UniProtKB/TrEMBL annotation:
Domain YchJ-like middle NTF2-like: 31-134
Any one Pfam family match given in the protein's UniProt record, by short name: YchJ_M-like
Protein name, per record: SEC-C domain-containing protein
Source organism superkingdom: Bacteria
Transmembrane segments: none
Annotated source species: Pyxidicoccus parkwayensis
InterPro entries: NTF2-like_dom_sf (IPR032710), YchJ-like_M (IPR048469)
Amino acid sequence: MPPAPPCPCCSGLRYKECCAPFHRGEAEPPDAEKLMRSRYSAFAMREVAYLWKTLHPDHPDRARSREEYLRDLRAYAQGHQFPKLVVMDWKPPDETGLAQVLFFAKVFEKGKERSFVERSDFRHDGTGWRYLSGVTVQPKALDVPPETLTLATFPG
């Protein structure tokens, strides 16, 4: 039997031991970083229902119909490859409950690089951590390699 595949979130763990339990609804990510990793994996594994589930109720996409959102996400995920994720920095929740994660996502669409750096905001909704919003920057707009950024040096 071949070995279990590595998790797309680049944690170093196997998918079945890392993000799969979150995608299957068996557990909630314990913190914002793990939620962000599991969302990246969900894009790679085309687990679009999980992406809807993990949107914070205040995220603008929650105003859309679930079916429309899932259809658009399915098309996006099917047309892209997600080969690498690098988490550069994260901040635990502040006094308002806002947690942040800074990451570099390698993404390709039909051989063209669509990678980005994002500072994501997360809030707990009483059940689990949820994606609230994000600010993205294209790597070519940076003066430094994206992997060297921190939350303090992120230009967004």
